[in-house]
Amino acid sequence: MKFGIHNPSWLFGTDPDGIFDAVKAKAQWAEEHGFTWFVSSVHYRNPAHLAKIAAGVDQISRGRLTFGIGAGWFEAEYKQYGWDFPPKPATRIAQMEEAVKLILAMWTEKRTTFHGKYFHAEDAILEPKPVQKPHPPLMIGGGGEQLTLRAVARYADACNVGGTPEQVRHKFEVLRRHCETQKRNYDEIERTSVIGFVLARDEAALATKRRRLAVPEQYNGFAGTVSEVVDLIGRYQDAGVQLLISSAYKNDLETHELLAADAMPRFVDGPTR
Fold first, then answer.
1. Are 139 and 39 spatial neighbours (Cβ–Cβ below 8 Å)?
2. What's the confidence (pLDDT) of residue 62?
3. Which CATH number among 3.20.20.30, 3.40.1180.10, 3.40.50.880, 3.40.630.10 corresponds to the domain 34-188?
């Protein structure tokens, strides 16, 4: 199993002085290990423009980008920024699929003409092309069983689904069936999942940390001890997860350290990213 870190692009807290060091640290990590664009909603940017941005990132990182895209779900964020939020998931997923087709065309064709239901391009140029050939790996995020996982089977190099190990196992079984229908090799698709963590060495330390970080009672992640998280990671591995992406609550440093020192070495079979 491989491991990744989902690090928000903001700092938790009130002091902005550390943001440049934080960005520098992220850039240094990406320089060595690679990184995933995790994940952009289809509606946040014009997909032809997004393809150009991503190609630039792949150039700057010398071919280390994994490009992630999803259909969008967080309606409150749409309202905050004044974006239209199509109410039907099927519409958003259809827009994502069409955007993926356009993005792949922009990355691989000398000039792209694309006339879709939602997006258009006319003799569009994208230069320089991405470093990775034929294109950067494409990750589709989401676990919708009828449409999203079908799109993964059609187009994606990686998927990202959330939930308990049992729920994730079920999503992968659904994906396998879509791959059979689409005549796609299931094993070509990297299977990833992301989970939030709050970790401590023992129950007393965990209780103290929950109070200090003001972790909600209904925290949508895993709060536990090292021994408990080792058991949980093993269950995700058994469910078929190949890359487990951790998101430490409020970027808690000790959670990162405990994962890296006491949990990950028991499972790592390749470089982390």
1. yes
2. 87
3. 3.20.20.30
Closest CA to 232 of 137, 163, 132, 157: 163
Domain coordinates in residue numbering, the chain? 1-32+193-273, 34-188
**CA dihedral sign of residues 122, 126, 130, 134:** positive
Q: Quickly list DSSP for 80-133.
A: HHT----S-HHHHHHHHHHHHHHHHHHHHSSEEEEE-SS-EEEEEE--SPPSSS
Hunting for tokens 């990833």 — which residue is that? 192
For residue 19, the one-letter residue type is: I
pLDDT value of position 271? 44
Name the amino acid, one letter, at 88: K
Mean pLDDT per 10-residue run, the chain (273 residues)? 76 56 59 62 93 92 90 92 94 97 98 98 97 96 96 97 96 98 97 95 96 93 96 97 93 91 83 45
pTM for this predicted structure: 0.88
